[in-house]
Amino acid sequence: MKADRTALLAAVLLSAYPAIRLSAQDTTAGKNVYVKWCAGCHGETGAGDGPAAATMLPRPRNFTGAVYKVRTTASGQLPTDADVMRAIDDGLPGSAMPAWKGRLSDGERRDVMAYLKTFSSFFADTSQHIAALKFSKEPGGGAGAAALKEGRLFYDSIGCRKCHGDQGHGDGPSAPTLKDDAGFPIYAADLHQSWRFRGGPTAADIYRRLRTGLDGTPMPSFSDLIDQKFLTDEQLWRLAQYVRSLSPAETPEVRDVIHAAQIAGALPAAPDDSAWARLDRYWFPLVGQVIRKPRWFAPAVSGVWVQAVHNGRELALRVSWDDRSQSPDTAWLAFERRVLETMASDDSSPPPSAAEPWPDQLAVQFPRHIPDGMERPYFLMGAATDPVYQWRWTSQPRRAVAGLARGIDQFDALPSAPAAQAVYDHGEWRVVFTRALATPDTANDVQLATGRAIPVAFFAWDGSDGEHGSRMAVSTWYFLALDRPTPASVVVSPLIAMVVTLGLGMLVIVRAQRRGAGRRSGV
After folding, report:
1. Is the pLDDT of residue 12 over 50?
2. Looking at the 3D structure of the chain, how many domains does it have?
């Protein structure tokens, strides 16, 4: 009975995307949608070779082979209509494929799905029986220590760490060798960023990917391990729940302001000081630098976590980000070469002829002077007439410098530099900058002040991805606020007011009760 109910539920869910009959009207309308919105990436013939494809990693889907990553069908099988519609509706996070639900009408999305299927003769093969796998219900207790321990056991035993790394940052020993079926370089997923998972961020989504695999990539299906009784279905669920536990419970919200609390005493200068665990973290997404040639459309660093604290005299700023290698790393040179060969640049700037051992780098950017209004320097490292103040850190040599950037190509170092400590640990960099709020060089160094909105921006380079110079990840301007301690009067005054109000209220009640008692005794 339970199996019947599960099958019935699956049928109901899948019916949300009804099967599409490939009528001439459907495919004709679908072609119009495809040419307008899809061919630029996927190509006129659906081969994944559109004009924009050379700037993308991962590459757009080649529909002619009918190999789809995200499916509910078994590995090697065609996707269901619901699978294709889901990819169109929701997009594929972590890639250039956007969500089209809300941009195209229901009819347009159904029509373009019908047209996509005409690119491959496999969909016209009537002997193909396309059916979704039957997936079990998620067992309870997945967040408990015992369940996560069991999931970690299978993470190790079935070899997940070979690609995804010991801590899941995509830095396993096999990671530099990975490529998809078309020969393009491919990154092992960073399991700490579930919001970028192609097939969805939940434990149920991860479980389905473990059952189906990601066809066309090195990620296999593990359904056969259940058939071989190497592990049970529930144990595969525990693995999915463990993987999900590596990411934040919720997709991080991008907030505009970093609040740096004020504390008494010394600041945490070491990246792994326990004090950082008690401070708020702020997530800031980074995107490829696509304005200044040579441009870079697929940066390896997708975002940074930022924390800040001050003591009224100094500021400590901690920036952490996931990076699959501690660059320069010769083990990644072959991968870097494949990335550079795969990624087109501009006609005026051909890709380098050979990979080089570049370091990892990070830049934190401020205006030279805190603006009174919303006017800020040009976000992309300022301009010759309006430079920006930056802290720049490199992994080799391991140091930080301060200077003025007058555009991407010009950086003039200043005599004073922030103190910096850095740690690389299992695919993650953690760097702490420390600097006095006020410095003698008021003309060039930003003077950090409490109670002001201080513009701040971030830049990152992954050396093992061939990133240097203008090939980098960038953010827009955000703000840093050095909070002031709350005056005692702000806390005490409301308390006194509450006590006085309560006392007056009680006095009114007591007097009213006495009057009522007097009237009753006089009757």
Report:
1. no
2. 3
